[in-house]
Structures are given as C-alpha cells and as structure tokens.
C-alpha cells in the first residue's frame, strides 16, 4: 500500500515520538497501512521510537498479529513502559504454542520495576489455562510450581481456598502468582484479593492493593453494587 502521508508520519514518530503523529499513524494502520512497517519503530536505535512502536502494537490489539512476536523480543528492553506494553500484546496475540515467549514473560516476576510486575500479574490473571500450562512447562523451579498451581486454579481442579496458603508461601514467585489467582476469582470470591491486600509481605500487599483499587473502579463503572 503506497501512502506517502503514512510514511511521513512513520518518520516523524521514529524521530520524535510525537503523540499526535503516533495517533494519526495508528488510524492509518486501522485503515489498512501494513502493520509490518512497525518493525521500523520496534527495532529503532531511538528509544522514543521503540516506545511508540510498542504502544502502537498494544493499541492495534489482534490486528498486530503479524508483528507481535517482533515486539515480544523487547521483553528485556531497558524502558519499563515498553516491557509493560509487550505484556499487553502477549495477552492479545499469543497462543498455547507460544510457550517460549510466555515463559520469557514469566521471568519478569523478578523485574525491578513495579509497573512491569503489576502488568505481569494482570496478564497471568487473564490468560486461559492452555497458555498458562504452556508457560509452566517451559519454566523451572519456583516459577514452574507457581504457574502449575495457577493453571490448576484456572481449570478449577484446585479450590480457591488454596490461594490463602499460596499467599503465605515462603517462595516469592508463588506469593506473587497467588495475587494473580486472587484477581482471577475476584468477581465471584473477592475475599482473597482483600486478604492479599493485607499481606505482611510488601510486594504482595502493594500489588494486591493496586489491583483491588482498579477492580473497584471498574466495578463502579459497570454499575456493580458489590462495592
């Protein structure tokens, strides 16, 4: 597709990350400009271009299917917003066959930035059991044990009350994944996310409180009367 204006916008975004140009480029993609051109941003030496590229992949949702695996190579990118956006694209575009990418995402449980860990916990709270199982098979140690437990929770082969013992686990990975489990059952059984929010473990309580606040805000928007 030849679209001089789209290529001009692409160059502007690559050079400056201009917000207006980025949104105009997004509209171009929705109207048929090939998403493969996003590789120019994703693999740029300019950090603002990479940030804009990762943002656009997320905004495109499943329309980014042809290039989301290119974005997934940025899971270790220095900018935390890029890593967070990549996690969103994994949720929208991955399949159970993408176990290696899903397992790489699980490594971000140890990410130094709380925003990325929060994004990852939301991802694991939302992934279907097949993708969780795929990730668990390609991880090891505490991560594999935690993801296997979460897979069983998602399949409803273990009861929700196992969340309590998971939250109290001596293993950090299990405690964090337990927050994902608590979020996963929140709509029908909110007590576990409330319990996580009161945890004596700071990393658990912080993430759980952030997720709990978000869920309460969403409930108000939906008009739920529970909160």
Quickly give the structural class.
Answer: mainly alpha
Q: What is the H/E order?
A: HHHHHHHHHHHHHH
Largest sheet: none
The number of strands is: 0
DSSP strand (E) fraction? under 5%
Question: Mean of residue pLDDT?
Answer: 94
- Distance between termini? 50 Å
Determine the fraction of residues in helical runs and give it as a percent range: 55-70%
Rg over alpha carbons? 19 Å
Number of helices: 14
The backbone outline, from C-alpha atoms, is elongated
Low-confidence stretches: none
Tell me about this structure.
By secondary structure, the protein is mostly helical. It contains 14 helices and no strands. It has helices at 4-16, 19-30, 39-42, 47-60, 68-72, 80-93, 99-106, 114-126, 129-137, 141-155, 162-167, 172-184, 191-197, 202-222. The longest helix is centred in the C-terminal third of the chain and has 21 residues, at 202-222. The protein is elongated. The model has no long low-confidence stretch (mean pLDDT 94).
């Amino acid at each position: 597709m030849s679209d001089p204006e789209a290529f001009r916008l692409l160059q502007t975004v690559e050079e400056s990350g201009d917000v207006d140009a980025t949104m105009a480029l997004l509209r171009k993609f929705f109207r048929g400009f090939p998403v493969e051109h996003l590789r120019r941003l994703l693999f740029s030496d300019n950090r603002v271009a990479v940030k804009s590229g990762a943002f656009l992949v997320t905004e495109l949702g499943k329309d980014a299917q042809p290039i989301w695996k290119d974005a997934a190579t940025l899971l270790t990118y220095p900018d935390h917003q890029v890593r967070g956006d990549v996690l969103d694209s994994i949720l929208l575009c991955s399949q159970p066959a993408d176990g290696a990418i899903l397992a790489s995402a699980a490594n971000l449980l140890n990410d130094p930035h709380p925003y990325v860990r929060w994004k990852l916990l939301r991802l694991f709270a939302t992934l279907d059991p097949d993708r969780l199982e795929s990730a668990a098979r390609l991880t090891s140690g505490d991560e594999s044990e935690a993801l296997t437990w979460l897979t069983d929770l998602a399949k409803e082969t273990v009861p929700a009350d196992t969340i309590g013992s998971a939250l109290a686990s001596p293993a950090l990975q299990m405690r964090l994944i337990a927050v994902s489990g608590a979020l996963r059952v929140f709509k029908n059984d909110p007590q576990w996310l409330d319990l996580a929010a009161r945890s004596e473990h700071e990393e658990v309580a912080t993430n759980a409180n952030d997720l709990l606040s978000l869920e309460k805000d969403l409930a108000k928007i939906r008009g739920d009367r529970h909160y």
